[in-house]
Design goal:
Elements (H helix, E strand, L loop, with lengths): L1 H10 L5 E4 L2 H15 L5 E4 L5 H15 L4 E4 L18 H23 L3 E6 L22 H22 L5 E6 L15 H10 L6 H13 L10 E3 L2 E3 L8 H15 L6
Parallel strand pairs: 1-2, 3-4, 4-5, 5-6
Antiparallel strand pairs: 6-7
Length: 270
Amino acid sequence: MGKETALALADMGNTVVMAVRNRERGEKALAEVVNRTGNASTALMICDLASVSSIRQFAKEFADSYGRLDVLINNAGAFFFGKRQTTGDGFERTLAVNYLGPFLLTHELLPLLKSNAPSRVINLTSGLYKSGELDFDDLQSEKSYDAMKAYRKAKLMVIMFTYELARRLQSTGVTVNVVQPGFVATNLGRNSGSRLQSLLFGMVRPFQISAKKGAETTVYLASSPEVEGVTGKCFSKLKEVSTTPISYDEEKQRLLWDTTLKLSGLTSTV
């Protein structure tokens, strides 16, 4: 979906910076975007959301190179099946890539977003968040690890983070919304290391929508004047949708915010 989002926005004539983890794959995607759109302003930068140092380095280099940011799209997502894995920073990997990484990246880029307001932040979640559960005493799944539960929990946290950040950024001109793209045919799950899971993902592929279709709502939120000033909402299929009751719990949103700051070693700037 990231490539399809970049294609659509580049085709509109925007300057698009693709943040990728793998340079070789990123270069191929970049070449396709430039060739298909003719937009030479599209660029590539390396950012590994599983690495705190990579995120901070990316944010610094981006600010030095561009000096402004109109739209930040947190698109990355990953499944990690099998045994619990940790990043080099000691975070459970599913939590790091799907939630902590986007949280930190947004935090690091907020000065640019604020200085260039009106601007937009768009976070991507998954419909699987609906069965996500939060245990603030075990956010990193140290007591009990289940890959699907970890993923669902992380995607619920993305929604709650979106709502909390939107409230904190009221009157700044920075809007924050979240997208449920639907059941999209992507490579999510193929990095699981599980043959069974890869087989299952292949079996359901005929029932999935295309990555291009899945990117439509993200592109809409990033570019449409119709949503100028709209913030703290969830969108699916180009329309605003409601989310689960727990996602609207402001006390839990604030607790999640404070807990995430502590985990990340951050001091809130919002």
